[in-house]
Amino acid sequence: MGLFKLRKNKRFDYTPRYYKKDGEGSPFEIKRKFDDYRTTAGGQGGIKTRFNNALDDLKRNPNREVNRRVFFIVLILILIFLFIIDFDLSIFFR
After folding, report:
1. Selection from 32, 81, 38, 30 nearest residue 56 by Cα
2. Are the beta carbons of 59 and 52 closer than 8 angstroms?
3. Is residue 1 over pLDDT 70?
4. Do 39 and 53 touch, CB atoms closer than 8 A?
5. Which of 3, 27, 2 shows the shortest CA–CA distance to 15?
6. Quick one: the chain helix, strand, coil %, rounded to 5?
7. Gap between the Cα atoms of 87 and 94, Å rounded
8. The dihedral of CA 29, 33, 37, 42: what is its sign?
9. What b/e sequence results for 21-35 when a residue is b if at least 16 CB atoms lie within 10 Å of its CB, and e otherwise?
10. Most buried one in 10, 31, 48, 92, CB count within 10 A?
11. pLDDT of res. 74
12. pTM (predicted TM-score)
């Protein structure tokens, strides 16, 4: 009487077609493209640790032009935000 008996799943011995058996890790592991080059990817910790890791990564970046571009984009976004909320900049000046 097989009414209350569940079927067992079949097991297959599957190996991917292009898997190198050099011991380079699991073929089923999903790894992002730039994880080897960043310190901010995959680190555990609180928001302070993540922020410090991001600042260290930004400081160690050899391309200074990218750092300058990010700084200007953040500055423009902050100014747009202040304009939207009608922040009065006259409190900084006499």
Report:
1. 38
2. no
3. no
4. yes
5. 27
6. 40, 0, 60
7. 16
8. negative
9. eeeeeeeeeeeeeee
10. 31
11. 93
12. 0.39
Assigned token pair, 30 = 């999903």
Q: What is the pLDDT of residue 78?
A: 93
Cα–Cα distance, 26 to 19 (Å, whole number): 9
Q: Contact at 8 Å (CB) between 41 and 32?
A: yes
Tokens of 9: 């799943």
Please tell me the distance from the alpha carbon of residue 50 to that of residue 42, in angstroms, as a whole number.
Answer: 10
| 33-81 confidence digits (pLDDT tens) | 776 666 656 667 788 887 887 788 777 777 778 778 888 999 999 999 9
Q: According to the model, what pLDDT value does residue 40 have?
A: 59
